[in-house]
Design a protein that fits this description.
By secondary structure, the protein is an alpha/beta fold. It has 5 helices and 4 strands; from the N terminus they run αβαβαβαβα.
Length: about 110
């Protein structure tokens, strides 16, 4: 949470069904796992210019922290400042950090 408060961008790569059933972290941006590298690689023509920035720390999270570890490592190989949320969304929720229902979230971004 501290890194997020300092400006790090939270990237949610969980499935729609997980986000629908468990909720979302406020201000996290959704990027489907299967397009993550395309959207965040600064050299890719299919990048999202708001996300594919080398000057911003990225914190990737999945449901339990396994997929996001691999995803963050890949993003680091692309030259991005990326890490993952240990324990994923479930650890965030267990720590009683903010979670909102998917329908109430206005910060979700489609891939």
């Amino acid at each position: 949470m501290e890194a997020s408060e300092r400006g790090a961008l939270l990237i949610d790569i969980r499935s729609e069904s997980q986000r629908d059933s468990d909720g979302v972290i406020p201000h996290a941006v959704f990027v489907a796992r299967n397009v993550l590298e395309w959207r965040l690689d600064p050299a890719c023509e299919h990048r999202d210019p708001e996300l594919a920035r080398r000057d911003q720390q990225l914190i990737v999270f999945c449901n339990e922290g396994y997929q996001s570890s691999l995803a963050a490592a890949t993003l680091c190989r692309l030259g991005l400042d990326a890490t993952d949320l240990i324990g994923g969304f479930q650890a965030w929720r267990e720590a009683e950090l903010p979670v909102t229902p998917l329908l109430d979230s206005h910060t979700q971004k489609s891939s």
